[in-house]
C-alpha cells in the first residue's frame, strides 16, 4: 500500500478566483467592508425605511454587535458623576453610520465628541 504524498493542485479555474494570501484577499475586494457589510449593503438595509428611528436601529445593529452597543458610548464621556465613562464607539464605524443616515434623511445634528 503506497501513500500519495503529492500536494493537491487546484483546478486552473479556481486559481484565479480564490485568493490564497491575505494581501490577495484585500486587493481582490472591490468595496471596503464595514463589519462584513459594504456601504451599498448598509444603504440597502435602510432603503425601505421612512422612519429615522427604525433606520437607526437597523443600521446600528448592522455595524455593531448588541453587546458592544451596551458597553460603549458615542462620546466616551460619563453620563453623570455617579457612573464611570464607557469607551467610545469605533470612530470609523460611527462616522460610516452618520454618513449613511445623513444620505438617507438629509441634514441631522452631529452627535460627536
Automatic annotation (TrEMBL):
Report the domain of life of the source organism. Answer: Eukaryota
Q: Which GO terms describe its molecular function?
A: DNA binding
User: What are the boundaries of the region Disordered?
Assistant: 1-32
Q: Where is the signal peptide?
A: none
The UniProt record lists the BEN domain at: 56-107
Q: Name one Pfam family in it.
A: BEN
- Kindly give the InterPro entries that the UniProt entry links to this protein: BEN_domain (IPR018379)
Q: What is this protein called?
A: BEN domain-containing protein
In its UniProt entry, the species of origin is given as: Dreissena polymorpha
